[in-house]
Specification:
Blueprint lengths: L27 E9 L2 E2 L3 E5 L5 H12 L6 E5 L2 E2 L17 E7 L40 H5 L18 H4 L8 E8 L17 H19 L7 E6 L2 H7 L2 H4 L4 E5 L11 H11 L8 E8 L1 H11 L4 H4 L13 E7 L4 E8 L33 E8 L7 H18 L8 E5 L4 H10 L5 E2 L9 H7 L8 E8 L1 H11 L4 H7 L10 E6 L5 E8 L12
Helix pairs in contact: 7-8, 10-11, 13-14
């Protein structure tokens, strides 16, 4: 097997013209390396006086890169240097080099004609299968389709033919049609032996069921034209991810299968640039006129990091995303990437396609004993308040289609009370959402509370009223049925965004009619988002085509 070896160049010790040499007592030396996707950059030293600040170091690196200083992010010993006024003397001195890594963030892309994304080098995979270049459109390589179509196990032999064939040969080099890549990020199924070594972490019987349900659901999306026909699968090399990914080629024909160590579980707060490298590789804009789908099977932390970066959240805040979300096993997080660089979050942790009897969100400590404990999954309802955000039924469908949406979302919300949240619920809605809310309220044996008209334009009052811990009991449920704008507002506010940040970030999300979003406010006041924009309970035939 031919592998590409990325060798690190030795640190450069050459003094630059115009630089003064400081003595060890009056300087701080930084051994600096730039984080570059696809290659290891050469290290170099930067010497600054102890009185200099982080801002001065940023300015020095910006001058070297020929960019603005605010585009530089510096990390030392796993932590971003966020205090620009901090003295460099606090990081070291006496001539001993202080290791730092920096990244140059891309400036905000102007709205312009789509430009073809450059093709990055393939990731060197430790197992037999290489990783597709992110700039390339996922799809069967010439002469390699038969191996994928036969359902070859992930990590098995794959053709070394470069899959980065130009999309212009398929769609036309000068096509002006916008390109789109649909990225589906799947958390692995439930595994056992949590906290032990990787190879012991096999899927539980419920984990296998979850992975099977998700594979079948995605295969139906492809079969009914809800996803682009060009497709590829990329999975982590961890056992639980391999076993989850193995279900997909069984049901999906012509699926190119790749793997990468970079997708293994990681703590982005400890290794932020590892996670950032994965994001930059996989979320590259497709070429104009091209359309493809990339299915990624990975882990909670890395999925959430990439989600937050796609939503425009800075590196240091994206690294903390695992504190804000609690994804269910084998759930689907979808982000659409367009050829002009724009990204849209469509869903987070969608799992309504998985049978209620198999849904879980925590791994199992020790062996899987569910078969000896009656066969049910090990799970408990969430404590505190579960806020259920339902976008009202509607869209371009017929009256019959909208009525089916209402029935489907009503049944789904009712079912959540059986295993995830309290059946004691109140329902509130906007005037435009009364039809959907009335159906849900009847199922929950209550009547909807009609919110003031002003809530649609000024939803802060709804956030302050409903996003609190329960008062009368340790567990309750609040269902809010409304249009997408106020629902996204209260969701983003629950993630700790300011009012101004929330208003700007809403445009990066697009939740469908009849979708369900779950936010859990624990009794200690902390918040966990379970899912956003889940429409997997709706008939697939009613979902929009790609």
């Amino acid at each position: 097997e031919r592998r590409r070896v990325m060798e690190e160049a030795p640190p450069s010790k050459r003094q630059r013209d115009g630089e003064e040499t400081l003595s060890g007592a009056e300087k701080v030396v930084f051994n600096v390396k730039k984080a570059v996707a696809g290659a290891a950059a050469a290290a170099f030293d930067v010497e600054l006086p102890p009185t200099a600040t982080v801002r001065d170091l940023e300015a020095s690196l910006a001058a070297r890169e020929g960019c603005e200083a605010q585009l530089i992010t510096i990390v030392s010993r796993g932590k971003p240097l966020k205090d620009a006024d901090a003295k460099l003397s606090s990081f070291g001195g006496g001539g001993e080099p202080v290791p730092v890594v920096y990244i140059v963030r891309k400036p905000a892309a102007p709205v312009a004609a789509p430009v073809a994304a450059p093709v990055a080098a393939p990731v060197a995979a430790p197992v037999a299968a290489p990783v597709a270049a992110p700039g390339a459109a996922p799809g069967p390589a010439p002469g390699a389709a038969s191996g994928a179509a036969s359902g070859a196990a992930p990590g098995g032999e794959a053709s070394t033919t470069n899959t980065a064939s130009s999309a212009s040969s398929v769609c036309g080099k000068h096509s002006t049609k916008p390109g789109r890549r649909i990225i589906l990020m799947l958390r692995h199924g439930q595994c056992c032996h949590e906290g032990e070594r990787d190879e012991l972490k096999e899927l539980t019987q419920h984990g296998h069921k979850q992975a099977e349900d998700t594979a079948r659901f995605i295969s139906q999306l492809f079969a009914l034209g809800k996803l682009p026909t060009k497709r590829a699968l990329l999975h982590s090399t961890s056992r639980r991810a391999r076993e989850t990914a193995a279900k997909l080629p069984v049901h999906i024909q012509d699926l190119e299968v790749w793997n990468a160590d970079l997708l293994r579980e990681t703590d982005p707060t400890d290794k932020p640039f590892r996670a950032e490298e994965v994001f930059n590789r996989l979320f590259a804009a497709p070429e104009a006129g091209d359309s493809d789908a990339l299915v990624i099977v990975a882990h909670n932390n890395i999925i959430l990091y990439m989600l937050m970066r796609a939503a425009g959240v800075p590196i240091e805040r994206a690294a903390q995303a695992w504190n804000l979300f609690h994804l269910r096993h084998a759930s689907i997080t979808r982000v659409d990437v367009f050829s002009n660089g724009e990204k849209k979050v469509i869903s987070v942790g969608a799992a309504a396609h998985i049978a209620d009897t198999a849904v879980t969100w925590r791994n199992v400590t020790g062996a899987d004993m569910s078969a000896w404990k009656g066969g049910g999954p090990e799970r408990h309802k969430f404590g505190g308040r579960m806020v259920v955000l339902v976008r009202q039924a509607g869209g371009q469908g017929s009256d019959a289609s909208i009525s089916q949406q209402i029935r489907s979302v009503t049944d789904h919300v009712k079912s959540l009370g059986g295993y995830m949240m309290s059946g004691k619920a109140m329902v509130a809605c906007t005037t435009a959402a009364q039809s959907t809310a009335t159906s849900i309220a009847a199922k929950l044996k209550t009547v909807p509370q009609i919110l003031p008209e002003s809530i649609v334009q000024e939803p802060e009052a709804a956030f302050l009223q409903f996003f609190t811990v329960p008062i009368e009991s340790s567990r309750d449920t609040v269902v809010i049925v409304a249009e997408d704008a106020p629902l996204l507002y209260v969701l983003l506010r629950s993630l700790g965004m300011s009012v101004e940040e929330t208003k700007e970030a809403r445009a990066l999300y697009s939740i469908g009619h009849g979708s369900v979003t779950l936010v859990n406010i624990k009794n200690d006041g902390t918040t966990k988002v379970i899912t956003v924009g889940d429409t997997c309970h709706l008939p697939i035939s009613d979902m929009p085509a790609c």
